Q: What sequence folds into this?
């Protein structure tokens, strides 16, 4: 026998994890989801020197103790390995498993198979469960249980071993997470559009500054202010172009929930061209605002400082995006 061979065999025993064990050509094969007494068709997946592993393809003749699993995910999920067996057969398997451990590992002799006490209704008895959350291949939020020997989540909110309230709680959580994800995607799209508008305005200001067209710069900023529903310009300085630029960019930052702290001492007569200074401020404020949007809302803050002394060509500028205390 070799890998990928298709074989037929009868399951004679169960392994410690509930997998079926049968023999073919004198070789022991472990087959997940097979039940003692099943006659099956299986595909060999891996071969070792003295044993191998096979995957169940078809139950040719079911065992007398085989039953229909109550959970539709029983074969996929890594939680319930014995649901394809009657409850009585499950109890018998567990009793023999304890006996094997006591005799083979514990070294006890002359020990009878212990009597096991079952439940009248072997469902809904677990009061604790852990459900991982993640996304499927399409990006949808899912929760459930991990598939056997993997971290792939089998979507499932109804586990027949847990209490019924679990399902309602999980579905409420999924809806809440979906809403958060949808809001985040929508906000990200809006932020992208705002950055595009900001870059376009900044490029326009730079082009008009080269032409020395101050009136057109003011008109452009005013148009952007109206489109973004920015309030009446705040008085930051006497120069109309610089003041309009500061108003537009700082108000836009406030719209992202950013706290603004400014220390500005800008004289009426600027030592440099106001359009060029406006471009410097616009670039710096755009970068600071973008950096702040990556922080939690309660930690967003921009500190802006600019000191220009009358009669001096020197100026001091500082724009910092930082966490609030």
A:
């Amino acid at each position: 026998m070799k890998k990928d061979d298709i074989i037929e065999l009868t399951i004679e025993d169960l392994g410690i994890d509930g997998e079926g064990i049968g023999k073919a050509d004198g070789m022991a094969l472990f087959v997940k989801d097979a039940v003692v007494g099943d006659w099956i068709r299986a595909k060999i997946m891996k071969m070792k020197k003295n044993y191998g592993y096979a995957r169940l393809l078809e139950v040719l003749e079911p065992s007398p103790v085989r039953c229909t699993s109550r959970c539709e995910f029983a074969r996929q999920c890594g939680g319930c390995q014995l649901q394809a067996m009657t409850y009585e057969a499950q109890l018998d398997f567990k009793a023999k498993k304890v006996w094997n451990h006591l005799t083979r590992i514990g070294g006890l002799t002359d020990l009878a198979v212990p009597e096991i006490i079952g439940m009248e209704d072997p469902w809904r008895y677990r009061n604790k469960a852990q459900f991982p959350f993640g996304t499927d291949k399409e990006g949808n939020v899912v929760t459930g249980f991990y598939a056997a020997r993997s971290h792939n989540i089998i979507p499932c909110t109804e586990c027949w071993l847990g209490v019924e309230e679990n399902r309602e709680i999980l579905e409420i959580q999924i809806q809440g997470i979906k809403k958060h994800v949808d809001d985040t995607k929508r906000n990200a799209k809006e932020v992208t559009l705002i950055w595009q508008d900001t870059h376009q305005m900044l490029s326009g200001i730079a082009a008009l500054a080269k032409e020395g067209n101050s009136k057109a710069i003011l008109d452009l900023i005013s148009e952007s202010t109206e489109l973004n529903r920015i309030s009446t310009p705040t008085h930051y300085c006497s120069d109309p172009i610089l003041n309009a630029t500061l108003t537009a960019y700082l108000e836009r930052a406030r719209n992202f929930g950013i706290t603004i702290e400014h220390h500005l001492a800008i004289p009426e007569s600027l030592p440099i061209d106001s359009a060029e200074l406006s471009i410097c401020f616009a670039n710096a404020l755009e970068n600071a605002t973008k950096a702040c949007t990556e922080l939690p809302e309660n930690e967003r803050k921009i500190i802006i400082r600019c000191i220009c002394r009358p009669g001096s060509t020197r100026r001091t500028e500082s724009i910092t995006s930082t966490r609030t205390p």
Q: What stands out?
A: The chain has a mean pLDDT of 83. The first helix runs from residue 87 to 105.
